[in-house]
Amino acid sequence: xxxxxxxxxxxxxxxxxxxxxxxxxxxxxxxxxxxxxxxxxxxxxxxxxxxxxxxxxxxxxxxxxxxxxxxxxxxxxxxxxxxxxxxxxxxxxxxxxxxxxxxxxxxxxxxxxxxxxxxxxxxxxxxxxxxxxxxxxxxxxxxxxxxxxxxxxxxxxxxxxxxxxxxxxxxxxxxxxxxxxxxxxxxxxxxxxxxxxxxxxxxxxxxxxxxxxxxxxxxxxxxxxxxxxxxxxxxxxxxxxxxxxxxxxxxxxxxxxxxxxxxxxxxxxxxxxxxxxxxxxxxxxxxxxxxxxxxxxxxxxxxxxxxxx
Amino acid sequence: xxxxxxxxxxxxxxxxxxxxxxxxxxxxxxxxxxxxxxxxxxxxxxxxxxxxxxxxxxxxxxxxxxxxxxxxxxxxxxxxxxxxxxxxxxxxxxxxxxxxxxxxxxxxxxxxxxxxxxxxxxxxxxxxxxxxxxxxxxxxxxxxxxxxxxxxxxxxxxxxxxxxxxxxxxxxxxxxxxxxxxxxxxxxxxxxxxxxxxxxxxxxxxxxxxxxxxxxxxxxxxxxxxxxxxxxxxxxxxxxxxxxxxxxxxxxxxxxxxxxxxxxxxxxxxxxxxxxxxxxxxxxxxxxxxxxxxxxxxxxxxxxxxxxxxxxxxxxxxxxxxxxxxxxxxxxxxxxxxxxxxxxxxxx
Lengths: 309, 348
Fold this sequence. Notes:
heterodimer, A: mainly alpha, globular, B: alpha/beta, Rossmann fold, six-stranded parallel β-sheet, six-stranded mixed β-sheet, 14 strands
């Protein structure tokens, strides 16, 4: 691999990792508040179709990104209503959100299949973006890539160093205690779930506006599930989740480059299997109590909360 | 025994009267969404063409996004017991389900695409997708400056491999040093990864792209990077007005019309066909702006040669990837050999 190809591979890894970072960091916030939302895939699809349709109709990608986030948040609001206000089972409701989002996005997107959209403009800083190695590697992405880094930093900081972050963690660790201390558990969780939904929507918008400016049914191709696995993989820590997304993005891009160069170290089917295998492994591990404690999973994760209990 | 006869009699009574007072009911089972702008889209386009052709004599409907496996069997059984007379199942993965359900409904006719099993009431039909690849390979050999094409493919199965081989063999007839770099994604549709794969191939020296995927992400990447590309399943010139040289378009309509006509006439018999350009089932979309006059002439010559049978792409000598002679000179691969092809030719 020469230098040019290496840079191209790293740039590809970044575009592969960005949607995962957005969705996984959003889900991290939701899970830290104690809500397991398995609807990431559905919210991503809603965001993708919302963003693409808006941009195709209005021509404004900024508006598209906004609508993408709003569409993800809207599905999340539905999920929150069912699981938080009505205290339904989170796992079942999350799966329902994914199925609903998949169907809804196909329905709304039917008229937009095959339409062309202008790809999201990339940042270009005069002089700096033209630097030989640094330029293409760091300074020529679209704005959402930079946003994904900034939001990870913000979430990491907010969770660790702000009062709001402390309350959110308290609600996720032990909802009854947080309630006894006078915190509004349901309100905190609503906000966390909405934030997670908006981030999933943005992840979808990234796919339909930046990665491949198009809409087809099932555009996300399982990335929502990978994002969910990354949250666990990163042990509910924003920067670890971020690193996991880049690790995964890097491996999957590396595999493409190796195949193109004619190196086949392991059969391609095995490589395609790895993320899902890792997901199963991680889920098995966190299902056992001891590992769950060691990984410091939020104590009330998945528990429905009723104030009058 | 008696009860069975009675049941048979009841079924016969329930069957459609021969004089056509009620329309023939035809169902289609699709593996993808009709809006995929590719494989399933073309099937549904053909269904609509067939419906328009027969107007009121036929009543057709479809079920989309049917998963291969038990779900497909359930759908097929529901259609068969719901009064459909002729059922088209359009994916290879539906084959075993069709065979099982067909045994339980001997009075319903089944048509199975791209499989290889038949029965008294199950026909099999397929297209010679690879014929289009021959023309594409010829153009790639003439138009590529680096002599390297990038090929984004779904799965390493015979249907995909025969296309890659036909493309490579044709390109190497023009430029004996031509190389084809292949990336398998192990999925029929994943646009972001298709684009990633296309970009990585371009970064590794390819200057012309071909794909065997269901979305148009590869064409879109080619357009964005200013290189040439071939489409498949559907015309993709909307996505790549400058990039698309031509697209291999599936045209299932003539077959559907012929088979439905046979069912209407009562002459439907089980059959197994593999249709190509000669039958109008594989069509190439109009040449794109990137096709030079010389390439256009060569492409037209190839098309004519494929139609009159003078072009035999799988004629020996053919070496495999490692350089071992697989098909000796003077020998042409049989259809059966082509359908089971699981090795790549030299130059990939």
